[in-house]
Known about the structure:
With 510 residues, this protein is of the alpha+beta class. The chain has helices at 7-28, 57-66, 114-125, 159-163, 173-178, 180-185, 230-239, 250-257, 287-295, 299-305, 335-344, 361-375, 388-396, 414-422, 439-450, 454-471, and strands spanning 37-42, 71-73, 80-82, 85-92, 95-100, 137-144, 147-152, 193-199, 203-208, 221-226, 244-246, 262-277, 311-313, 351-358, 379-386, 402-408, 474-487, 490-491, 507-508. Helix 14 (414-422) runs antiparallel to helix 15 (439-450). The protein is globular, with a radius of gyration of 23 Å. It starts with 6 loop residues before the first helix and ends with a strand. Mean pLDDT is 92; it is low at 1-31.
Amino acid sequence: MKKQNICFAIGLICLVMALAGCGKSGSKAQAGGYKDTIIFGQGADVTSLDPHIGKETPAVTVTNHIFDTLVEVDGVTNELKPQIAERWEQLSPTSYRFFIRKGIKFHDGTELTAADVKFSLDRAIATPAVAYIVDFISNVTVEDPYTVVVNTHAPYGPTLRNLSVPFAAIIPKAAVEANPTGFIQHPIGSGPYKFVSWKQSDSVQMEAFADYYAGAPKTKNLIMKVIPEPSQRTIALETGELDLAYDLTPNDLKIITGNDKLTVFKAPSLSCTYISMNMRKAPFNNKLVRQAISHAIDRQLIVDTVLSGAGQAADAIIAPAVYGYFETGVDKFDPELSKQLLAQAGYPNGFSCSLWVNNSVQRVEICQAIIEMLRNVGITARLEVMELGAFIQRSTAGEHDMGAFGWVTSTKDADYTYYSLEHSSQQGAAGNRTFTADPEVDRLVDLGRTSVDPAIREKAYKDLAIYLADLENNVNIAYTEINVGGNNNVENFFIDPIGYHKLENVQVKK
Length: 510
């Protein structure tokens, strides 16, 4: 068994891939200036334009351009950088002072002040969908119009990284209080792009914000197109309808690699694809059944076939690149053991259930393979495919038997995932859709969460990984690569291993 922490390596890989892509685009691009619009395609629509609600990656790829946070993490170097806060200082193990840049404007022309920061963090804490990222905060106090102090309940190691996550975005207090519904439909941020329109299930359009504190974006217009089928995103890239296509399948990547007008950007991601079993329902409240399901699944076969080798069989719900990962070993594929466990649990002839998944083509294919594997041990699982928003809403309510999910550890720290997916206080919207309520899980999560001593944290996460491997509330399937297909004329694009690709410095030659 071993611990791994390879964030620096990921940053280096991302930099190399990005530079390689930029070099290719520079050599092939036509002369004649730059396009005034960048169009990128993704497989799902935004779930909400409110940054304190829409935490799913398809939403953040859009809202991350509209809103900013106090600090940010460089997607290439993994280093913390100032954003809305020009600097900060730690006053004590539980207190941080942030100095807000003067002159930052929201898209409605009003100035961003410390009052907006306090309002935003208080609102995020009170919002169930994203509270887990900021509820380590005890209170936020305003010292003057450009200074805030963030106090935490206890020492909390990932404080700054959590405040860099897009769900901790700073929003305009006056505008939201004056018209909360209007803000949801027409979001106002301080980011590099301002919102223009949203055609649900089709597209979101944004326009460069000329008064952005870091300078106006390089390209005037930014459009996100919803194209559910990866193959159609690839075709749109080939025909020039898209400049960038997110999250493609291995077969699509082969097509792009074979086209000298296109480029592939890819890097190991920080995400895990997993199956959550609803422990509020029988038979999933029986640990033997959950263990039987795990041993019935051949993870390596899924990686080799569905993912065409572009991934790694998963043993934990956090990826090896995440701080706090501990290798417990992938559960052995053993159908006979699975049958024995089912018999011990009182299901010698198996049982019937449903497996829910959103309409991601690759995730659907993974589920189809899992259903066949479960059938071989006597479990009949019905596949139910639904739109992402409905999938999130209904699984939050606990209507599912089993559900296929993907989770990105956006802070690269184990607390982000273990707290939201495993802690009893985070059931439902925050992420715990197994509805686990286990005192030992809570104790270990809290121990890792409230200590700033790396040795204590790592020991807590090691013990937690071992405990969860036995509890088997989630069946961890695979760590996947992240990829983007691009036109060679795209310049200055850097892939973000989290998936929140930033485009304000990207240009596309005509």
